[in-house]
Amino acid sequence: MTSKNPEEEHPSVTLFRQYLRIRTVQPKPDYGAAVAFLEERACQLGLSCQKVEVAPGYVVTVLTWPGTNPTLSSILLNSHTDVVPVFKEYWSHDPFEAFKDSEGYIYARGAQDMKCISIQYLEAVRRLKVEGHQFPRTIHMTFVPDEEVGGHQGMELFVQRPEFQALRAGFALDEGLANPTDAFTVFYSERSPWWVRVTSTGRPGHGSRFIEDTAAEKLHKVVSSILAFREKEWQRLQSNPHLKEGAVTSVNLTKLEGGVAYNVVPATMSASFDFRVAPDVGLKAFEEQLQSWCQAAGEGVTFEFVQKWTQPQVTPTDDSNPWWAAFSRVCKDMNLTVEPEIHTVATDSRYLRAVGVPALGFSPMNRTPVLLHDHDERLHEAVFLRGVDIYTRLLPALASVPALPSES
Ligand SMILES: CSCC[C@H](NC=O)C(=O)O
Ligand SMILES: [Zn+2]
Ligand SMILES: [Zn+2]
User: Fold this and answer.
1) Whole-prediction pTM
2) Which locations, inside or outside the cell, does it occupy (predicted)?
3) Which of 74, 140, 270, 352 shows the smallest number of beta carbons within 10 Å?
């Protein structure tokens, strides 16, 4: 499939590269250009296109391929339109040029996360339509803004809208991660992001003195407790080959703030942590643990949440789940090895699962290093095209899942 001559490039790859050139980069994404691109695709594919403005300037675009049996719930193919910022000086090629090297690697921000998937959905639907197929279940493709900064102006609002209810989603596919091996990773749950800011207050004074009860010394205690917990979780992961990264709780100290001058002991200091809480952790007890670390550090140490997800859900990965059965059957038929895991990252799937829509996170990229959010994010065109093939098999199976007990 790799073509050396640009004139011979596969049209799906050309479309992918066009989409990559749209600068939907945080913190000021050009969402207008992305929506216009998607409207044009809808027009080309003969699909209806609905635009739902969930907040001023934040549009969810929904392309719909109606099924033959409108009483059945639908398949939702989700992707986000925004991408994370770049450090341009570390890239081998302009991250918004979608440069393709002589081997077929396409370099661009969004090449893996997740503009590839948006185009793969569109191209799989196009192929199936051209071949004259029709399926019982409706297929909706949702293109949402704001995922990279938490989805608060995107999927979080969209799932609460009547337009979302009207889609009657029964099952969703959303983003996963590349896998450097021959296998494909599929995510059935994810960890809950808890962003916690610990503030310590204490006695101020001259920097030359042995002041007691300082903000810094108490903050240091909390930091030590939390980093000791981090080490414990890391060791638990290291010592058990059956545990994958998403199954343990991670934490990183990501910000330290405070202080005004070398010789002034500050009255307040803060430390910020990015916790990712594993889905089997009791959240109430975990919050109590945070509380007790702060209390043990002394008087005047408090914490607040900047992000706090409390509704982790698990999509079953056994044949009791007809959607999983259909998904895994296709993978088996195509000889794809799938590795079910818990996502380490927070994606929009959490909002879908929380409103009762089972979801799998799947980015069909094997033999590909995980380069999301990294310099030189890239994808080989052959892997991209293979992904279109995979969706071309998955969509008929998912959109033909017979009526569930709840649907008859
Ligand atoms: C917690 S809201 C931020 C969501 C973000 N998602 C993708 O990277 C993440 O940091 O996981
Ligand atoms: Zn993403
Ligand atoms: Zn991302």
Assistant:
1) 0.95
2) Cytoplasm
3) 270
